[in-house]
């Protein structure tokens, strides 16, 4: 009986501790929320919460990348590198000046992952001898509706804090994260501004079909090869929408949920929307036609920013089509969004 009481007290203590926050790696404050059989873990990028500010929720892209991953540092020692769902790609301190910057950990992915469980792409894997095999728990949790529920749960919790101001709530995301941000905005009436970076308005699968067509038109591959690629995509999409194959292969759940069109969700919103993408990004090609949909509906709440000669992650692409990873532009892209936020709030 005494052991049971101690165990219960231990659980209650941990729960309270997680909901009050814990400074992690002297970079952020970690919170933990129970969510059914899961635990939602998210960080606020700060070490003190003594200033009242609105929330800026950043929805990261795909794959199980931890917020902190162990690397061999410049001081010839192992330490945890802060990735933060990709926010290190830009000057996130610009955001922190005026917002509580929130990043939710990927589902069933530890916030901190040691080198023993990090593949070369900085992704969490249970077994390094199988660097492309993600955990079964992550695969089963990797679908749009789950990300949206987790995001709204975190926002609901944050609304209760006296250091959060309620007049403004920014939700933004990159790539897959733009889809999560979209659905949060359509289901959460508190969201006031939506930021979309490198989105595909028509989901996910169509970009591979468009790429195959373009490659054939440019002579990079034969039309026979392009036709084969397209048929493979149709077959994959068909499996993702079949009850039996969907049940047998949990990976298909993500493809089904993230492949629905999203432009109709954008059109349903009356809040300011900012859409930024690179002209060399095949996934975002169809962003070019989005203003037509808004014009047809007599809506003027879409701001479209086209970045010339940049790819999906806003790196420069040279005339030969080669990505220059020494020429990043994420910082200027995010600064442009923050300037827009300031203007649209005035």
Q: Which runs of at least 5 residues are low in confidence (pLDDT < 50)?
A: 1-17
- Overall pLDDT score: 93
Shape: globular
The count of DSSP E runs of length 2 or more, i.e. the number of strands, is 14
- The CATH class of the domain at 1-191: Alpha Beta
> Looking at CATH, which topology of the domain at 1-191 would you report?
Rossmann fold
Helix content: 25-40%
Structural write-up:
This protein has helices at residues 2-20, 92-96, 136-141, 144-158, 176-187, 206-218, 223-240, 243-248, 251-258, 263-268, 290-296, 330-345, and strands spanning 22-24, 28-35, 38-44, 53-59, 68-72, 78-82, 100-104, 112-113, 164-174, 193-197, 273-278, 302-307, 315-317, 323-328. Helix 4 crosses helix 5 and helix 7 packs across helix 9 (251-258). It is of the alpha/beta class. The strands form three sheets. Strands 1-2-3-7-4-9-10-11-12 form a nine-stranded mixed sheet, sandwiched between helices. The chain has a three-stranded mixed sheet with strand order 6-5-8, with no helix packed on it. It has a domain at 1-191: Rossmann fold (3-Layer(aba) Sandwich).
């Amino acid at each position: 009986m005494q052991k049971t009481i101690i165990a219960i007290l231990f659980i209650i203590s941990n729960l309270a501790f997680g909901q009050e926050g814990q400074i992690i790696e002297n970079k952020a404050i970690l919170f933990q929320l129970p969510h059914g059989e899961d635990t939602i873990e998210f960080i606020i990028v700060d070490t003190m919460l003594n200033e009242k500010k609105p929330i800026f929720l950043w929805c990261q892209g795909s794959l199980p990348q931890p917020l902190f991953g162990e690397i061999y540092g410049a001081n010839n020692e192992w330490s945890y590198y802060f990735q933060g769902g990709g926010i290190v790609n830009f000057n996130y301190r610009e955001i922190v000046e005026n917002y509580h910057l929130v990043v939710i950990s990927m589902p069933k992915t530890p916030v901190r992952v040691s080198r023993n469980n990090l593949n070369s792409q900085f992704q969490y894997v249970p077994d390094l001898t199988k660097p492309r095999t993600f955990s079964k728990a992550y695969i089963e949790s990797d679908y749009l509706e789950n990300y949206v529920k987790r995001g709204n749960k975190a926002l609901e919790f944050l609304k209760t804090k006296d250091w959060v101001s309620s007049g403004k709530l920014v939700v933004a995301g990159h790539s897959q994260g733009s889809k999560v941000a979209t659905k949060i905005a359509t289901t959460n009436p508190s969201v006031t501004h939506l930021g979309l970076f490198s989105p595909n308005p028509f989901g996910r699968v169509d970009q591979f079909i468009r790429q195959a067509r373009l490659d054939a038109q440019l002579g990079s591959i034969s039309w026979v090869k392009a036709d084969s690629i397209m048929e493979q995509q149709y077959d994959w999409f068909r499996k993702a929408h079949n009850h039996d194959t969907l049940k047998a292969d949990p990976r298909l759940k993500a493809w089904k949920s993230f492949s629905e069109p999203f432009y109709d969700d954008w059109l349903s919103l009356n809040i300011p929307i900012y859409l930024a993408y690179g002209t060399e990004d095949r996934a975002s090609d169809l962003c070019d036609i989005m203003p037509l949909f808004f014009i047809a509906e007599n809506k003027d709440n879409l701001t479209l920013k086209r970045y010339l000669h940049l790819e999906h992650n806003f790196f420069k692409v040279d005339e030969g089509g080669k990505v220059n990873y020494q020429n990043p532009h994420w910082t200027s892209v995010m600064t442009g969004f923050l300037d827009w936020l300031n203007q649209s709030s005035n």
